[in-house]
C-alpha cells in the first residue's frame, strides 16, 4: 500500500479483518512521510503486519531508484519509531524456514530449535542433531523476504527495466485488458529473475520478470477474477 493511498487501501483491507486503530492509523500516516524524508526514499509503502505473542510488527518498505533492488524494509511496534531490518542472505532464509512457532514480539529474542537429520539410507540409520539459533529481528527480515519472493506479484507491463538496468514503474501502464487479466501468464513475480538474461533485458524491457504460470508444480498459484462482485 503506497503512502499516498494508504487510507483508502486500509478501508479495502478491513473487510479481510486487517484493522488499525484510529491512533495507529494516524501515527502511520504521519511517520511514513517522515521516514521517506529521513531516508530519502522515492516513496514508502505499508507492507503489512506480522503478529507476535507480546507485540506485533508493523512493516513498511522504502523504495529507492530501483523498485526491486532499491527496497529497504523497516519495522515498528508503535507506528512511530522505525528501525531498518537487517540485510538477508540465503543462509538466513534457510535458517528461518527451519524455525517453527510464532514470533514473540521481542526483536532481541534468540530462538533455538533442534533439527534432526538422518545420515545415509535404510531403515536403521544414524541421526545427527544440530541446534539452529536465530535472533528474532533476523528471522523477521528473512520471513519478509521469503514472502516477497514467493507471492509478490505484479501485472505484465506495470514495471519496466531501463537501459541503465534499473527497474522503474511504467508510467504508461493503464492496466490489463479483461482477457489478459484472466490468464496467469500476464502476472509476474516481482523479484529478480533467477536466471538473468542480459539480451532479454535489452530487447524486452517489459518481459524481464518471470511469469507465475512457469511455477512448479503447475497450479501452485490460482487466479480469481471478480467482475461486478460475481466470481
Automatic annotation (TrEMBL):
<dbReference type="InterPro" id="IPR055316">
    <property type="entry name" value="RSP9"/>
</dbReference>
<keyword id="KW-0963">Cytoplasm</keyword>
<dbReference type="GO" id="GO:0035082">
    <property type="term" value="P:axoneme assembly"/>
</dbReference>
<dbReference type="Pfam" id="PF04712">
    <property type="entry name" value="Radial_spoke"/>
</dbReference>
<dbReference type="GO" id="GO:0044458">
    <property type="term" value="P:motile cilium assembly"/>
</dbReference>
<keyword id="KW-0969">Cilium</keyword>
<dbReference type="InterPro" id="IPR006802">
    <property type="entry name" value="Radial_spoke"/>
</dbReference>
<comment type="similarity">
    <text>Belongs to the flagellar radial spoke RSP9 family.</text>
</comment>
<protein>
    <recommendedName>
        <fullName>Radial spoke head protein 9 homolog</fullName>
    </recommendedName>
</protein>
<dbReference type="GO" id="GO:0060294">
    <property type="term" value="P:cilium movement involved in cell motility"/>
</dbReference>
<keyword id="KW-0282">Flagellum</keyword>
<keyword id="KW-0206">Cytoskeleton</keyword>
<dbReference type="GO" id="GO:0001534">
    <property type="term" value="C:radial spoke"/>
</dbReference>
<keyword id="KW-0970">Cilium biogenesis/degradation</keyword>
<keyword id="KW-0966">Cell projection</keyword>
Amino acid at each position: 500500500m503506497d503512502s499516498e493511498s494508504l487510507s483508502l487501501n486500509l478501508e479495502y483491507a478491513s473487510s479481510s479483518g486487517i484493522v488499525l486503530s484510529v491512533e495507529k492509523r494516524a501515527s502511520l500516516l504521519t511517520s511514513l512521510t517522515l521516514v521517506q524524508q529521513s531516508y530519502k526514499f522515492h516513496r514508502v509503502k505499508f507492507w503489512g503486519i506480522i503478529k507476535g505473542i507480546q507485540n506485533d510488527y508493523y512493516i513498511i518498505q522504502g523504495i529507492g531508484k530501483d523498485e526491486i533492488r532499491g527496497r529497504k524494509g523497516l519495522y515498528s511496534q508503535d507506528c512511530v519509531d522505525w528501525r531498518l531490518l537487517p540485510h538477508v542472505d540465503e543462509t538466513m532464509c534457510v535458517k528461518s524456514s527451519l524455525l517453527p512457532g510464532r514470533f514473540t514480539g521481542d526483536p532481541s529474542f534468540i530462538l533455538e530449535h533442534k533439527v534432526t537429520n538422518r545420515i545415509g539410507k535404510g531403515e536403521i540409520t544414524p541421526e545427527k542433531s544440530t541446534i539452529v539459533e536465530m535472533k528474532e529481528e533476523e528471522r523477521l527480515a528473512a520471513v519478509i523476504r521469503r514472502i516477497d519472493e514467493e507471492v509478490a506479484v505484479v501485472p505484465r507491463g506495470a514495471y519496466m527495466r531501463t537501459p541503465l538496468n534499473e527497474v522503474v514503474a511504467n508510467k504508461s501502464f493503464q492496466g490489463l485488458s479483461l482477457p489478459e487479466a484472466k490468464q496467469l501468464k500476464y502476472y509476474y513475480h516481482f523479484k529478480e529473475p533467477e536466471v538473468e538474461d542480459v539480451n532479454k533485458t535489452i530487447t524486452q524491457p517489459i518481459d524481464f520478470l518471470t511469469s507465475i504460470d512457469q511455477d512448479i508444480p503447475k497450479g501452485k498459484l490460482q487466479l480469481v477474477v471478480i467482475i461486478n462482485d460475481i466470481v
